Amino acid sequence: MGLEKTTSIAPGFRPMWNIHETGVALIAVLWILAILTIVVTGIAAQTRTEQRLARNLLASEQAYHAAEGGIYYAIHQLSGDQGGSGKKLVLSTLRVGGALVTTEVTDERGKIDLNTAPDELIRGLIQAAGVELDEASRLTDAILDWRDGDSLRRLHGAEDADYRLAGLNYEAKDAEFDSVDELQRVLDMPPEGFELVRGGFTIQTHAPDINPMVAAPLVLAAIPGMTEELVSEYIEAREASRAEGLPAPAFPLGGSPYITFENGPAYRVDARAEIPSRAVARICSVVVADRRRGPADFSIIAWSSSPY
């Protein structure tokens, strides 16, 4: 008979190989848990980000449409408010859904038309913005050369050869301005100078004169003969007559060929909508009264929007 070798294990004793296998399994489980935690955390963070983006997108859309509603509300108000007072109307803040909307209506006759205004008004506006006379004259001649239909260069102006010499890939337009922003393409128009004068120009009135009852101080200062003191006195008298419902005050320069007291037909309508702590949207539009269909009938001829 052969002898059989037996191995006995004392109570409470665990073999070393079992302990090693258990440790490896524990480490693996811990790594899996760590990886799952990272994955779940990432998914949760991505979900929160997507939810936030969706809320922001929704708020932006709501703000835009609230501003759009403000535009049409202002046009409705304007339809019944063409009494010739030449006023700049700031409506009370409206609530459209969860948005606060402020609208402003401004008569474009208070601005200088780039396509029809005489050089005196254009030069005067540039000077009123702080540009020296020589530079203002040069820019004015360049503007006039841009809008006229010929290739004859004014004394300080700029025609096709001047644009080529400056290394630009375009020439003088020799046609009317299609927008006020186009003024930036005129030779040597400085960006900072454009920002100063852009609010005083328009292309919508098709008139050579301005209505002083709705003109900003900078535009009033552009009128030949107007001084800083005269501008201040006139604005004070204008606001007083407006507040009391009186007719427009006499203009300091009686008989000036640069003024009119006619309103419209073009108006700028601005609307700003804000959803507190979430979104803001702004819409700028230009509307024109269609007098063939009645003074209360308006057509929108320009529209731009900017969330910010």
Automatic annotation (TrEMBL):
Domain named T2SS protein K first SAM-like: residues: 116-195
Subcellular location: Cell inner membrane
One Pfam family recorded for the sequence: T2SSK_1st
Transmembrane segments: 23-45
Keyword Transport listed: yes
Family of the protein in this entry: Belongs to the GSP K family.
Protein name: General secretion pathway protein GspK
UniProt GO cellular component terms: plasma membrane
Lineage: Bacteria, Pseudomonadati, Pseudomonadota, Gammaproteobacteria, Chromatiales
Organism whose genome encodes this protein: Sedimenticola selenatireducens
Gene Ontology BP term (one): protein secretion
